[in-house]
Amino acid sequence: MIIKREPDEMLSYLEDSSNFQKGKSEALYIPEDEKEVIEAIAECADKRIPLTISAGGTGTVGGRIPLEGAILSVEKLNKIISLDKRGKKAILQAGVVIDDFLKILKTQNLFYPPFPTERTAFIGGNVSTNASGEYSYRFGSTRGYVREIKVILSTGETLEIERGKYFADKDRYLPIGDKKIKVPSYITPSIKCSAGYFSQSGMDLIDLFIGSEGTLGMITEVEVKLIPALSSPFIMIIFFKKNEILKFISEVKGDKKLNPLSLEYFDKRSLDFLKKDFPNIPDVSREALYIEQEESENILEEWVKLIEKYEVIDTWISQDRRTYEKLINFRHKLPENINDYFKKIRSTKIALDIAVPQEHFRELFDFYQTLRLNNPRIETVLFGHIGENHLHFNFFPRDEKEREKVAKICEEAIKKGINLGGTISAEHGIGKLKHKYLESMYGKEGVGEMARIKKELDPYCIFGLDNIFPKRLLM
Ligand SMILES: Cc1cc2nc3c(=O)[nH]c(=O)nc-3n(C[C@H](O)[C@H](O)[C@H](O)COP(=O)(O)OP(=O)(O)OC[C@H]3O[C@@H](n4cnc5c(N)ncnc54)[C@H](O)[C@@H]3O)c2cc1C
Q1: Which of 224, 226, 229 is nearest to 107 (CA)?
Q2: Does 116 sit in the ligand 1 pocket, CB within 6 Å?
Q3: Could you identify the atom of ligand 1 that is nearest to the CA of residue 54?
Q4: What is the pLDDT of residues 359-411, one digit of tens each?
Q5: Residue 361 belongs to a domain with what CATH number?
Q6: Which among 83, 99, 340, 377 is placed 20 to 30 Å from 408, CA to CA?
Q7: Residue 357 lies in domain
């Protein structure tokens, strides 16, 4: 096993895409097989050294960045253990990079639907954050595609948890090895959600670990479900003149012939961010919708019929592989350009990741517009997965005064989202940045129940400290 102790050698592990800058570590373990993983965990458990698991480092909430103790990097656990074409399933070590996996699947005419936009993420990172993908409008999040996981606890115990095998009983107790653990009393909303430990009546044990952000144990292997490769998709980008996107989307959802893979929103500010890559974006467009769908007979005519009912300024459609690759960047470039801008103006990103049930989305959307109108000096950008009633609302505070203002705006938005039955994190998780919001969602009691579960499964309290809830709750 590679072990590094020099501060310089660990620097790149003290960052992810959150700009969280409080990382500190005394050692970095890079195991090459499961035996070495067990050794590293045993050493940390014996000495009570906090251990933070590090994967692709694309997380946005500082989850892989330790505040103290050691780092366990899964980067060398990157083998595809098996790929069963006929059974449409694969077993992967936790460090398999999603992009590599997708490329191999392509050669086999197979597909892994919940891949996230940032494909340098690892499968273990995706499972631990319950990531949602570019096509989650159609396919849902990672949770729906995980068949089995192997987890190593701080006690040294290895759990092999297969979906469909272990369920909470009527008194809400989940069987785990020779223990029984009580499921929290809060209920995770049945919408796109990655906020805290999953909790529902009769829940499957595997779902407790999916989205647990490295706090319960180290996931070493994941068995995923696959589907046949999709027929070639095409992209449409519609530039709207008036604020009509919500009406347009409700028509899309009501039309059974249209079944897009993604429905993504871009506000005026997002379009400004994309101008340097796409200078032809019409200046007068107020907002745009990005749609991806597989080609099939008459499908384009169906879309054109719908689009013609609206006052649109322009519609771009990919005609071939080359224009598809170009237009896909419309989506990929936006988070990159936003992150570059944050760095340029030396601002720390403050980003909301709220989703609400479909029937309340318009209210949340209008609320966001009101917040912007009431705070015209604060720079913001609003974009994302509008088809799933989930937008990324990012703020760019330039100084301390603006930061305080933004903190208040976020609290208002969070309160609104929760009152509408929503989640404070639809896909990015809580990490070290959103403890307070999680408490607003589930109350002190709910967060306390999460800490209780963590202590039962990780009695030495070494894994992922300060992820999801503050370490002081474990004292
Ligand atoms: C440009 C960009 C686009 C993005 N798009 C999306 C998107 O479309 N959808 C989405 O959901 N997210 C998205 N993200 C966020 C990020 O890609 C996801 O959260 C991803 O799942 C993180 O995976 P990772 O391998 O990078 O994990 P890391 O950032 O390294 O770690 C994330 C968390 O998982 C824990 N962890 C990692 N591996 C394990 C393991 N084996 N066992 C236990 N715990 C572990 C870590 O301790 C940490 O808490 C995006 C990020 C960027 C920068």
Answers
A1: 229
A2: yes
A3: 30
A4: 999 999 999 999 999 999 999 999 999 999 999 999 999 899 999 999 999 99
A5: 3.40.462.10
A6: 340
A7: 233-419
Q: At residue 417, what are phi and psi to the nearest 5 degrees?
A: -60, -45
Residues 246 and 381 in one domain: yes
What is the predicted pLDDT for the residue at 348?
72
- Burial call 51-87: b when 16+ CB within 10 Å, e when fewer: bbbbbbbbbbbbbbbbbebbbbbbbebbeeeebeeee
Does 428 fall in a domain?
no
The residue nearest atom 44 of ligand 1, judged by CA position, is: 214
Rounded Cα gap, residues 440 and 437, in angstroms: 5
Residue 51 counted as domain residue = yes
Please, which pLDDT band fits residue 133 given cuts at 50, 70 and 90? confident
Residues 6+ apart with CB under 8 A from 315: 236, 237, 238, 239, 307
The single-letter code of the amino acid at 446 is G
**pLDDT 10s digits, 192-237:** 999 999 999 999 999 999 999 999 999 999 999 999 999 889 999 9
Is there a domain that residue 471 lies in?
no
Measuring from atom 37 of ligand 1, which residue has the nearest CA?
125
Q: Same structural domain for residues 57 and 98?
A: no
Ligand 1 atom, smallest distance to 131 CA: 11
- At residue 349, the pLDDT reads 75
Q: Give the CATH number for residue 58.
A: 3.30.43.10
Query: Do 404 and 283 fall into the same domain?
Result: yes
- Are residues 277 and 216 located together in one domain of the fold? no
Ligand 1 close to Cβ of residue 454 (< 6 A): no
Is 439 part of a structural domain of the chain?
Answer: no
Domain check: are 288 and 388 in the same one?
Answer: yes
Distance 57 CA to ligand 1 centre (A): 6
Q: Tell me what the mean pLDDT of segment 19-25 comes to.
A: 91
267 confidence band (pLDDT: 50, 70, 90) = very high
Average of per-residue pLDDT across 232-243: 94
Ligand 1 nearest-atom number relative to CA 194: 11
**Count of residues in the chain:** 475
Ligand 1: does its nearest atom lie under 6 Å from the Cβ of 63? yes
Q: 442: Cβ below 6 Å to ligand 1?
A: no
Pocket residue to mutate for ligand 1, from 20, 44, 64, 270, most atoms within 8 A of Cβ: 64
Domain total of the chain = 3
- Atom 28 of ligand 1, nearest CA residue: 57
Protein residue with least CA distance to atom 38, ligand 1 = 125
